[in-house]
Amino acid sequence: MSLTVLVTGATGFIGRRLVPALIEAGHDVRAMTRRPESYDGPGTPVGGDVFDPGSLAEPLEGVDVAIYLVHSLDDNDFERKDAEAAKAFGAAAAAQGAGQIVYLGGLGKDGEDLSPHLRSRREVEKLLGEAGVPVTVLRAAIVVGSGGISWEMTRELVKNLPVMVVPRWAGTRTQPIAVDDVIRYLVGVTGNDDAKDRVFEIGGADQLSYKGMLQGAAEVMHGRRVPILQVPIGTPMLSEWWIKLVTGVDATTAGNLIESMGTEVVQTDFSIRDVVPGEPMTYAQAVRQAIAED
Q1: What pTM did the predictor assign?
Q2: Which of 34, 78, 178, 230 shows the greatest Cβ crowding within 10 Å of its Cβ?
Q3: Contact, 157 vs 246, CB < 8 A?
Q4: Reduced to 3 states, what is the DSSP secondary structure of residue 231?
């Protein structure tokens, strides 16, 4: 069934892949961006800014499904900004009669002491549905793909350091997922009645530590393991500047992500496979694909 779908963050890491996939699935897609006049991708460009509530009514008019892919991790005040934006977007979607909001959130057990980043993702989940629109949440850990911040950090560390000394958070388990699998799940839940008002966990085929991710990437990139020494230090401030020095990733964004790396983020619920069937890629497959795209 063809639906009218609005994709926020249409020019971002996930959005620019999702828009063509939704079109291929037969949907009429609106690509929301703050600068529609410069948008040259597929779909219909529409102007809108989630941080400007007055700009949301027009792009949401007549929309069946709105996909929310926006965050402010490059801002030190991201928790407040993201909460206000989510509340405004949910209200605007309800006012325009949208039937579903799809949100890409973050893995992590609700009962644990979550980092500000993951705590913010949980808050956004709730605020998007506060006005009554059914929300579908896909919770993911690290998304592996060309152009993704987490992959850029991993690639540059492996590329630039023949020997690595890593902080203690490198021993935390995570479950990276290929960006193509994320897109497959997002398309699969769009307009799917079985997915409405539900939270799903999504992950790749492998659970491994951040140290294991670095070793796995090194094996694919260089055909060999690299020496990695894990040390029992690594405050978020030290880590963020280390990441910035080695990889060039913005220190604020890196710091907000690193604060989450002390929390184990692995998939414990696999019900998404009943709604969107299919086996996810392994980490090595995801890395090979990211390198090919790079």
Answers
A1: 0.89
A2: 178
A3: yes
A4: coil
